[in-house]
Specification:
Blueprint: H1 2-16, E1 21-22, E2 25-26, E3 29-36, E4 39-40, E5 43-44, E6 50-58, E7 63-70, E8 77-86, E9 89-94, E10 100-106, E11 109-116, E12 120-128
Antiparallel strand pairs: 1-2, 3-4, 3-6, 3-12, 5-6, 6-7, 7-8, 8-9, 9-10, 10-11, 11-12
Length: 129
């Protein structure tokens, strides 16, 4: 009976982890930005930053972090928040005032749609390391 209780506890704990997956596997990982609207980096953003690098970290605990690097270090910034995955759609919610945005993971590619002040919506494409 004791072993059954331990086994059930282990199964229950595994079921409660936030190891979110898409139909193509886990979304967890480190992703490097490759393109914004099809253009390779560096890319000029609405805020005046010439974006030279961007890394997106998606963790198994349901949190994420994103580090932005610009040609002018005074524009460097980061974002952090939480995400959920439903039907291969990843919904991100920023804790730092960047709002909410959606994405999807297919294999080793993370695609994020971000509202843009001037263009309506930007598509950021990342590759998993």
């Amino acid at each position: 009976m004791r072993y059954l209780a331990i086994a059930l506890l282990a199964i229950g704990m595994a079921a409660c982890t936030n190891d979110s997956t898409s139909p193509n596997g886990s979304v967890r990982g480190t992703y490097d930005l490759r393109t914004v609207n099809g253009a390779n980096l560096p890319v000029a953003l609405d805020n005046g930053c010439d974006l030279t690098a961007d890394q997106f970290f998606i963790r198994s605990d349901g949190s994420y972090e994103e580090d932005f690097t610009c040609s002018d270090p005074s524009f460097d910034d980061f974002d952090a928040g939480f995400y959920t995955v439903t039907n291969n759609v990843v919904d991100f919610s920023s804790n730092r005032g960047f709002g909410t945005f959606t994405g999807s993971v297919s294999g080793n590619v993370l695609t994020i749609q971000i509202a843009s002040q001037f263009s309506g919506s930007d598509v950021w494409v990342y590759n998993r390391e």
